[in-house]
Amino acid sequence: MIAAALLLAVAAGQGDMPAIPAGDVEGRPPRGEASPLQARIDAAPPGARVEVGPGEYAGDLFLDRPIHLAGRGRPRLVGAGKGSVVRIRAPGVVIEGFDIDGREGGDLGRDSAGVHVAAPGAVVRDCRIERALFGVYLREAHGARVEGNTVHGIPGKEPGEKGSGVHVWNTEGFTLERNVVWHARDGFYIQSSPHGVIRGNVARELRYGLHYMFSDDNVFEENTFEANAAGAVLMYSRRIEFRRNRFLHNRGFASVGLLFKACDDAIAEDNLFADNARGIFLEGSYRNVFRRNVVAESDAAIVLYDSCGETRFEGNAFIGNLTSLDLVGRRTDTSFDGNYWSDNDQPDLDGDGRSDRPYVLGSLFDHLRGNLAAADLLAQSLAAAALAAAERSFPVLAPIQAVDRAPLARAPRLPAVPTVRSAGRRVSAPGLAGSAAAIVLGLAVLGGGRRSGRAEEER
Fold this sequence. Notes:
This protein is of the alpha/beta class.
């Protein structure tokens, strides 16, 4: 039931995508809504650098020629409240160094944004955008770069009443780097946009940190998806790469760190999944590889539907999770090879670094959790432990091939995995205590692994 609720939420997310009529973009603002800077823009020759000094400039800007618009001393652009504050309609425009206020105005149906780009080769850099329906909107903006911006959405509005921090639609070859988003609907929304690089961004306290579909061959590196209803939700895409990202504190009834639905041939390496309701969620996806990740302190490390095929988990560290696997269905061909499981109590008598017996993922109670939502209420109870012990002695389920046949006896050295460091979110005392405990546990286990590794090297 929980999985169904999550997928229903995903489906709802698809339903609130803004309609984007072909060719319908905001044009030049009427004279009464235009910025006093518009006359300087209109007088600038193509290729000119236009510097704007400190001060507040009320009204919207229309950039229809390739210029470099540079703010000096953080000038503030305050929109007219009727549409996008800055509208880029010519190739090769650069805008940087501005504070931009959308005044909570505009129209979601027309994609009103702090900066709306509908031309190739744009650069939006070092801008602080607030109170805009969308922060930065890229529409068929091939080759765009969005770098070092802060998007503070509209606090208090429901997710359906505002847009994403950075929205990318039908754009080829884009770069999103070092942006920070909060109080928007989703942090980053990417649709029908291949060959992009998304690196070093932070999305926190949102519905989805990443909402993503129909986009192949994109690379995600060193991003943080933190304290959202869901960390990253990806659908209907292929050949996506995740490396050195953080998925932290994504909690709630149907929350997840990373979700793949109908995503194939993806690879996830050296990522940290910590304190999520569900670390990794896979449904209807094929040939995905998870390698050298840390999945810690989550209710379920992996939720796996039997509609997945040829998935591989290799060399990961699963630490302090309530359950290793919720398998929805009665079969899986997923391979688990050489992972570390902190609840694996099998010895390593021959000292080869591998447990002497295979590690069986999940138990009878975990099977019930995967197929019966109410079982979650008893996850940490004595009854769950007794049921698991009884099932080990008197197996009642047909064997399900979810076995790590060569589990690591000690935690592996994973130096490329990022730390648990929070990206600046507010924390409560209980949450801080829980995180501290998780850090201590993780460091202790990983430190043990390192000491063991050094000892083995010395031998």
